[in-house]
Model the fold of this input.
Amino acid sequence: FIGLLNARAGGRKFRLPTEAEWEYACCFGAGEQVDPCLTSVAWFKGNSGNETHPVGQKKPNALGLCDMLGNVWEWCQDWFTRDVAKYISAVDPVGPSSGEYKVIRGGSWRDNVEYCSATHRLRSEPKGKGSTLGFRVLLEK
Done:
């Protein structure tokens, strides 16, 4: 999808967020604490009615972004590693340059609340698909 988008973008370049960018966007202005009332910001197993929902029906975060938690897991650009500490740096950490799985963040409509967390992370095969996976793109400057 992003390849097709970039081919038609008139010189603009889109991409997935890195894991660090995703977490920053999710937690902006809140540190690691997001809204304590998860039902106001996320669709999860307890309130989703077992389905995805259109974006924007829940309260936005400090950046005005909706559905950073719950609704669908979001793909990140980074390859998954369990050894995250190895890649943490002071500015713009980037994970391994290759791997078998990509990072997904945020939880989904089918998950219990503990998965809908700014710090919880899972992995998925790059060709994975389903009603619990989605993405948001960044426009590079």
